Amino acid sequence: MTLDVTDLQKTYPTGDEALKGVDLSIGGSETTAMIGPSGAGKSTFIRCINRLTEPTEGSIELDGTDLTALDDDGLREARRDIGMIFQEYNLVERLTVMENVLTGRLGYVSGWQAFRRSFPPDDVERAYEILERVGLGDMENKRVDELSGGQRQRVGIARAVIQQPTILLVDEPTSSLDPETSNTVMRLLTEIAAEREIPVLINIHEVDLATEYADRIVGLHDGEVVFDGPPDDLRDGA
Ligand code: ADP
Ligand code: ADP
């Protein structure tokens, strides 16, 4: 799987130029951390890739398919391949861990629709395996509003992974977590990239976590890439 982003620009209706022509290719089972101060454009970048935000200019190719050219049906199809993990988890509080994970099988729809559906036994079986993998093996019947932040984020990861995505996009996964839990979540994400042989792009403002866990660092500043290389080069240059 490769993602090729070319000349991505986003100007919001407010006039904010969040992205000023970003080029980025990721692939393999590499973990890429996108770092940069608040307002650099990291979140806009990830949101443009699956078109939660409409880019102003540029192309976004997932294995050769230009996502910017897709109609609604095409986009729905393409989004099944893109696993998204959010800072604030975006889980359905009143549903259980298992129900939240299973919503991942439906792509981007509300959890309530999932609640009313019954799922094939294979999906449930796979959900158990993934919950085990993320360390929530005995928590499937807990309601999400009973969980800690770290546990919620692991539910978010499980929900993305059950989609069997070909790429994972992760927006500030550790912002709401304490340092120890942040390390656990970062380690889990990099391990999943390796095990599933998919690229993972993680927006993160904590440089230490980025350099410790990522294979590659992309530095974004004012909507432009100002660094792209291995963590060691960043440490040497800093
Ligand atoms: P980061 O994720 O690096 O903090 P963002 O992508 O959230 O950066 O924001 C980049 C720039 O775009 C900022 O100047 C921000 O104020 C602006 N921005 C983000 N979202 C919107 C929006 N919905 N409307 C207008 N401006 C926005
Ligand atoms: P904002 O632009 O102020 O962040 P939104 O309502 O667009 O507000 O998004 C709120 C959060 O929900 C964001 O983290 C966004 O990435 C996420 N989000 C938006 N649309 C969807 C969707 N269809 N499915 C899942 N998460 C979404």
TrEMBL record:
The name this protein goes by in its record: Phosphonate ABC transporter ATP-binding protein
Residues annotated as domain ABC transporter: 3-238
Coiled coil regions in record: none
Gene Ontology terms for molecular function: ATP binding
Included stretch of the parent chain: 1 to 238 of 288
Record carries keyword Membrane: yes
Record keywords, A-Z: ATP-binding, Cell membrane, Membrane, Nucleotide-binding, Translocase, Transport
